[in-house]
């Protein structure tokens, strides 16, 4: 049985398919959409003494995570660094894509936005979910996480075929892990809660839409007698550009305020008679001017 971690990017489609339909009903409350300071995520990881038997435990304890998230982090040696990378990606891309907007992803105003249902709020949720998806997928395919590494698929004819890129994931365990990590509180039934879930999933689907097929030929003198193909993620900067386009075309749904409007409010009830798609950004209220005197 091969023991090597799966080659970079070969497990991405499996992990993405795993994540996409299963986001918890509270959206991606992590990183840019959490209430915690991002400084410990965006600052360089502290140097842990090489004599420390399990250095990832210290990294997990230093990160601003919930108790449940800390427990999960301590069980997965590669998770702390993947989380740091997710937040870094999200912040950098948010500030780049919104650099010319009235709200330019200033982190100081993030807390206020998270209490409202603006277009900017929709972008934050989608961006946070997308960066987390991208970072976890990269960490998994790169063999940096023990609990979602590639495994040898059933029915392989040889170890060589596995080394070329045929690999599989433990979908059941990984699904449970991601659901538990993202879930922080019970999901609400009001329009705002549904908006957060919808936009988080739209962000994940934006990452999935960027999967590209890469192929490699095997044969004498380039004859391509055997061809192995796999899916590879687009650079996150390309995903960020897609998120910005969705932000610019976000759709306002019924519900004039950020207050609960009852359990019958669902995405699809809009102003202007337009219908939403699962990849659209939705918002509840018009954005303020953001200009200060």
From TrEMBL:
Subcellular location: Secreted, Extracellular space, Extracellular matrix
One GO CC annotation: extracellular space
Function: Ligand for members of the frizzled family of seven transmembrane receptors.
Gene Ontology BP terms: canonical Wnt signaling pathway; cell fate commitment; neuron differentiation
Name of the protein described by the UniProt record: Protein Wnt
GO molecular function, one term: frizzled binding
Originating gene: wnt9b
Residue spans crossing the bilayer: none
Keywords for the protein's UniProt record, in alphabetical order: Developmental protein, Disulfide bond, Extracellular matrix, Lipoprotein, Secreted, Signal, Wnt signaling pathway
Source species, domain of life: Eukaryota
SMART domains recorded: WNT1
Annotated signal sequence range: 1-28
Listed PANTHER family: PROTEIN WNT-9B, WNT RELATED
Family matches, as InterPro entries: Wnt, Wnt_CS
């Amino acid at each position: 049985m091969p023991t090597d971690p799966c080659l970079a990017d070969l497990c991405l489609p499996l992990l993405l398919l795993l994540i996409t339909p299963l986001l918890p009903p509270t959206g991606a409350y992590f990183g840019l959409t959490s209430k915690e300071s991002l400084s410990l995520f965006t600052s360089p990881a502290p140097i842990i003494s090489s004599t420390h038997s399990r250095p990832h435990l210290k990294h997990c304890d230093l990160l601003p995570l919930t108790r449940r998230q800390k427990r999960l982090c301590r069980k997965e040696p590669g998770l702390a660094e993947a989380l740091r990378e997710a937040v870094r990606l999200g912040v950098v891309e948010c500030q780049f894509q919104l650099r010319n907007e009235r709200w330019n992803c200033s982190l100081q105003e993030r807390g206020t936005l998270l209490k409202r249902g603006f277009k900017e709020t929709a972008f934050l949720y989608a961006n946070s979910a997308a960066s987390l998806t991208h970072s976890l997928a990269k960490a998994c395919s790169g063999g940096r996480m023990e609990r979602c590494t590639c495994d040898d698929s059933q029915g392989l004819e040889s170890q060589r075929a596995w080394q070329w890129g045929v690999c599989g994931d433990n979908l059941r365990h990984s699904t449970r892990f991601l659901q538990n990590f993202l879930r922080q509180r019970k999901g609400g039934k009001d329009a705002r809660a549904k908006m957060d879930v919808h936009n988080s999933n739209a962000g994940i689907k934006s990452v999935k839409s960027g999967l590209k097929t890469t192929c490699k030929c095997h044969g004498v003198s380039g004859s391509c007698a055997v061809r192995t193909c796999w899916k590879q993620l687009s650079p996150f900067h390309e995903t960020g550009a897609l998120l910005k386009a969705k932000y610019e075309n976000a759709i306002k749904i019924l519900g004039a305020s950020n207050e609960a409007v009852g359990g019958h409010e669902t995405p699809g009830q809009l102003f202007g008679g337009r219908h939403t798609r699962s990849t659209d950004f939705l918002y509840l209220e018009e954005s303020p001017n953001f200009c200060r005197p």
